[in-house]
């Protein structure tokens, strides 16, 4: 039996060219400024989207890499 592969296993879902994480990070950061500085929050949202488009052009997993690096901040010394 032959079945067409509709989606690659390693391919991630994108919404208008960006990963879901990039959209969420952009919305959260600009949304935090919204009540205080309305115009600048919209401008920051556009700048963040532009930044993420450029960064994800070079590496699709860059946001996950940055989040994982920030999670595992620890000393480089290990004691046994």
Tell me about this structure.
The chain has helices spanning 20-33, 38-58, 62-71. It starts with 19 loop residues before the first helix and ends in a 9-residue tail after the last helix. It is flat. It is 56% helix and 0% strand. The chain has 3 helices and no strands. With 80 residues, it is an all-alpha fold. It has a domain at 20-69.
Question: How would the blueprint of this fold be written?
Answer:
Layout: H1 20-33, H2 38-58, H3 62-71
Helix pairs in contact: 1-2
Could you name the ranges where pLDDT drops below 50 across 5 or more consecutive residues? none
Q: Beta-strand percentage? A: under 5%
Largest sheet: none
The overall strand count is: 0
Along the chain, the helix and strand elements come as HHH
Which bin fits the share of residues in helices?
A: 55-70%
Q: Which structural class do the helices and strands define?
A: mainly alpha
Mean pLDDT: 76
How many H/I helices? 3
Integer-rounded radius of gyration: 18 Å
Give a nutshell description of this structure.
With 80 residues, the protein is mostly helical. The chain has three helices and no strands.
Keywords:
mainly alpha; 80 residues; 3 helices
